[in-house]
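ENTRY TYPE: paired fold submission
RECORD: A
CONTENT: sequence, then structure tokens
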Amino acid sequence: MDDQELIRHIGELADQERQLEERHTLEGLSTEEKADLDRLEVTLDQLWDLLRQRRALRAAGRDPDDAHERSGDTVERYWQ
């Protein structure tokens, strides 16, 4: 997946996340929808991490395709 595809996918998932957040605020979410929201948040964190890796590798003169998706457990433990 190249940078443009990552950015496009991040945008699509962010839209889905926003819709679920709005529903959560207005009418509440079902258990399934809450699980979907949790999965979306982790997936977004993974994609942002992958994009940052690609950019860092490129900036260092290396191949951005050497970046790899890290596990949800890994990206969720990063300090913000």
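RECORD: B
CONTENT: sequence, then structure tokens
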Amino acid sequence: MKILRIILIGLALSIVAGCSTQEREYAAFAKLKNGMSEAELTSTLGKPEKTEATADFIVWTYPAGMVFFREGKVYSWTIEPSRP
């Protein structure tokens, strides 16, 4: 019984930790501003999962959304809907 209780507590803590991480990422997206540099964005959101270049933009992809750069500055961003 004690082992089951420990396992359940560990599971509950890992779920709570995952939620707070996701909430922090969405909160970080709320801090974005047009004109931010790549260094400012990295300090706010961290390193992107993926980067790619299009004819008009450099796109940084994160789990919570995408950020579009033009001429080395944040031009716009999109936020993915929150996942349950």
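NOTES ON RECORD B: The first strand starts at residue 50 and ends at 53. Confidence is low (pLDDT under 50) at residues 10-17.
STATUS: closed
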